[in-house]
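Q: Hi! Curious about what Meiosis expressed gene 1 protein homolog looks like structurally. Here's the sequence.
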Amino acid sequence: MSCPVLLDNKAKPKSMSRAKQWTGEVENLYRFQQAGYRDEQEYRQVQQVEIDRWPDSGFVKKLQRRDNTFYYYNRKRECEDREVNKVKVYAY
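A: Let's find out. The predicted structure is below.
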């Protein structure tokens, strides 16, 4: 079952909050935001490519920035505790 809002490629976030503690979702948001995107939805809308993920952790493996350079990420956690509160979590 998919959310109809997520199927709309032009959906804009209704609100934004900051992450309070690290989770797998926060880790992936950190990676998208480092590459210059709001979240996975914006990345798919702009790049229109499949997202490479690490099979064991499910974390994002590689992202293409808007200037066509690539960011490569490790299998393990990259978002340190001191960076968690900088991650923006959007609600649609």
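A: A fun detail: DSSP finds three helices and five strands in the chain.
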